Amino acid sequence: MQIQKKEGNIFFIPLFFLSDFKDNVKSYARYSFPKTGTYAFGRLIEIDSSAGDLIEIFNYIGNIPDTKEIIIQSGKMFDPIHVSLAFSKKRWQFVFEDKTYDKNIDSDFQHITFRLGIPEAPKLWRGGVITKIDDNEANNCNEWIVYPPTKVEKMIKELKQINL
């Protein structure tokens, strides 16, 4: 049974693929992913097809485990980010369902923040609510950037010093 794209579900990120930009638009629907390999893992926090799905990446790197607990208990690698093309092209696929997921409890959704807009008039997105902010607040927030899957894979490899 293939696990569907749903908030709270855990997905794998294969770190053994090429990372050329053209690989972002290639379909992996027919690719048979092995259970063993160098994978990173993440969780879908919020689905947003127009502005990029909100995800978090965990510290666990390795084979696809038998349960999601080893992934979640490893902690988060970095602040949540937005991605596009990763799921639609099946490059990243869901491996664990989480029917009890609560984005406020499990992902601290209400405190996730991004800076929006132009520098002269910055706005803050926090937990789905957009407000005006001053320059000092704007400088302390991550910018809302939508990353392609290959860029996220490269970020993980660099952070974890993985050479494949």
Structural key phrases:
six-stranded mixed β-sheet; 27% strand; 164 residues; three-stranded antiparallel β-sheet; single chain; alpha+beta
pLDDT < 50 runs, ≥5 residues: none
Task: Describe the largest sheet.
Answer: 6 strands, mixed
Going by helix content, strand content and strand pairing, the class is alpha+beta
Distance between the termini: 30 Å
Query: How large is the radius of gyration?
Result: 16 Å
Q: What share of the residues lie within helices?
A: 10-25%
What is the residue-averaged pLDDT? 92
In what order do the strands lie side by side in the largest sheet?
A: 5-1-2-3-4-9
Assign an overall shape.
globular
What percentage of amino acids are in beta strands? 25-35%
Number of helices: 4
| Strand runs, count | 9
Order of helices and strands: EEEHEEHEEEHEH
Descriptive notes:
By secondary structure, this protein is α+β, with helices and mostly antiparallel strands. The protein has a domain at 10-106 and 144-160. 15% of the residues lie in helices and 27% in strands. It contains 4 helices and 9 strands. It has helices spanning 69-72, 103-106, 135-139, 149-160; strands spanning 10-14, 39-46, 53-62, 81-83, 93-96, 113-116, 123-126, 129-132, 146-147. A 6-stranded mixed sheet has the order 5-1-2-3-4-9. The chain has a 3-stranded antiparallel sheet with strand order 6-7-8. The radius of gyration is 16 Å and the shape is globular. The model has no long low-confidence stretch (mean pLDDT 92).
